[in-house]
Amino acid sequence: MVEHMAMFPVNTLKIRMQMFGTTSTASSSAHRHNTGKVFTSIMRKEGPLGFYCGIGAIGLGAVVFVFAGAVIGVGGGVGAGAGIGMNASGPKKL
């Protein structure tokens, strides 16, 4: 979860660049959006918190993942797979 939250601003830049699209012709280079232009645009229009717009969904997804893991015993939930270990031949009751 920490990795997702730390990389969220970079992902925001990537998504905004994908939304704007890029062109490959030299005549339309004025409409080309590079990382610097998109970064500046976000900072100017939304401020530093603009890079974290929508981060609540990441937190909510992590909570659901941990809860589901704890309830059904899979994933990264607290207590996931309690009492079950793995060895070379497959699952093994501990």
UniProtKB/TrEMBL annotation:
One of its GO terms (cellular component) is membrane. The keyword Metal-binding does not apply. Keywords: Membrane, Transmembrane, Transmembrane helix. It is a multi-pass membrane protein. The keyword Membrane applies. Pfam families: Mito_carr. The chain crosses the membrane at residues 49-72. It is found in: Membrane. This is Uncharacterized protein. It comes from Coptis chinensis.
